[in-house]
Structures are given as structure tokens and as C-alpha cells.
Amino acid sequence: MNILQTPFHATRPAGQCTLVGAGPGDPELLTLKALKAIQAATVLLVDDLVSDEIVALASPGVRIVHVGKRGGCQSTPQAFIEKLILAAVREGDHVVRLKGGDPFVFGRGGEEVEHLQAAGVTVSVVNGITAGLAAVTSLGVPLTHREHAHGVVFVTGHAHPGGQETDWAALASTAHSARLTLVIYMGVHHAAQIEQALLQGLPASTPVALIQNASLPSQRHALCTLSNMNQTLKRERLASPSVMVVGNVLQGLLALQTTDLPQVACHGI
Ligand code: SAH
């Protein structure tokens, strides 16, 4: 049934909406709260980057709506997703909006909550493990380290259309002086420009890890330095979803990489 056409029954209690972080893909990285919310859902709105194994954890009879760009199609417009949520909540449904990683790290979770709250819906949010964290951990490397990195910056490589561009050169200088690890999301399409701009503030020899499909059996990664980040990405055909991690926390791992080892390692095989 089309939930937008469902008649409104004044007698039914209002439903609820929970934004749930599905983590980077591996179902075992879900939080218990996320699992409970998924199992309690009567309507599940699923983003692109959420793995099928996680969707399979939902209860029988749940209405599942995929709202991502699967199969190369256009993603469902944000306003339509919010209308779906509103209609289902008014019907008394427990709507779970399942988003990749953490709902409040990129992925427009903040905007969604603002719009739903403005429409009178109470929204709760369940954290997920963000992709950048899982990606670096899968290489056995920490995001911070007393000797190499005093902090971490999660930054998008894809600014909001019409929005202000990230000042990469300024970010690079700060990362260098304050010893910060940079974790760049949605950056693969702009890797060449990002590399050039980061080189204005960080040494060419700064270690970089490029990690695709973190936490999934299809995970691949490549290690390189900042001056050949884009070249490595293209050569190894690393594509979205990938994170690019830049910083001296990767020094030890890069040093281990000898010319005898393959450039691209596979995870979970
Ligand atoms: N909310 C999500 C991020 C959404 S933005 C989170 O917290 O992880 C989408 C971007 O996240 C992708 O372009 C990619 O940069 C990154 N991403 C998501 N899942 C990933 C994965 N399994 N491996 C590597 N990068 C991933």
C-alpha cells in the first residue's frame, strides 16, 4: 500500500520516528539499541549504504522502502522522504530511518531531524559507528595517538551545492601544526583538487590510506603518500564508498609496506 494514501485514523495513537545509525556495513558493528529499534520498526526507510544483512534483521511484515541511489537511479528527494515519515508516523507506525554509519556524521541526519521536529514529530537518534572510524581501525591504526595525532577532523570532500567550499589549504596548515588526522568522506571525485590544496599545508610525504567498503567482505585499501594520493586512487580503481585518511598515525603502517607487498590489500578473505 502507498503509505502517502493511507487514510488518517484519528483514533490511532501517533507513531514515532527513530533515526538509526547502521554503521559501516558489517552487521556485527550495530549497537544493541540499533538492533532493538530495527526489530521494533513497522516501517523501515533504508539508505543506500545500508547492507542487506542489516535490513534482513527487521521483523516479518515490516514495510521496507529503499530511498537511496541503488542501481544508478536518482536518490529519493529529501522532501519526499520526510513526507513518507510524517504520513507513517501519523498512522501510528514506528518508523526507523536507517542511515549508513552515524546518522549525525554527514548524510543529512541533522536536516532531517530539524524538518521532522518542525512538523511536530518527536525524533530520537541512535548512534552508529561512522565509516571513517571503522576504516582506520580495520587497518589496526588509531585515529589519535599521543606521539602522532592529537585530534581528528571528519571532513566532507563534497560541499553542499551552492554552499561554501572547504578551505583545504587552511585545514592542511592547521592539521600540520596541531597534529590532526584528516578523515575525508565523499572525496574520491575531487581527490586531485583536494590533494593539490592539502599540499599547500602538509608535507608531500604525509601518509595516506584510501579505504573502500570498510568493514565489508569486499573491503580494499591502498597506502601511499599525499603527493600520489589521486594517482593511487585511480591506479587501484578505488571508488565510492571510500574514505581518505591523511596523517602521521599511518606512518608505521606505511613503513611496513615494502615493494614486495601488494599495493591493495583485501579484508576478510
Ligand atoms: N553517515 C555516514 C556517512 C555518510 S556520507 C557515516 O557516518 O559513515 C557517505 C560517505 O561515507 C561515502 O561517500 C564514503 O566516503 C563514506 N562511507 C560510508 N560507508 C563507507 C564504507 N563502508 N567504507 C568506506 N567509506 C564509507
Description:
- By secondary structure, the protein is α/β, with parallel strands linked by helices.
- It has two domains: 8-129, Tetrapyrrole methylase, N-terminal domain (Cobalt-precorrin-4 Transmethylase, domain 1, 3-Layer(aba) Sandwich), CATH 3.40.1010.10; 132-255, Tetrapyrrole methylase, C-terminal domain (Methyltransferase, Cobalt-precorrin-4 Transmethylase, Domain 2), CATH 3.30.950.
- The protein has helices at residues 32-40, 52-55, 78-90, 109-118, 131-138, 168-178, 191-198, 229-235, 251-256; strands at residues 16-21, 43-46, 63-66, 94-99, 123-126, 151-156, 180-185, 207-212, 220-225, 242-246, 264-266.
- The strands form two sheets. The protein has a six-stranded mixed beta sheet with strand order 6-7-10-8-9-11, sandwiched between helices. Strands 3-2-4-1-5 form a five-stranded parallel beta sheet, with helices on both faces.
- Strand 2, helix 2 (52-55) and strand 3 (63-66) form a beta-alpha-beta unit.
- It is elongated and about 60 Å long.
- S-adenosyl-L-homocysteine is lined by residues 24-25, 49, 99-102, 105-107, 130-131, 135, 185-186, 211-216, 240-243.
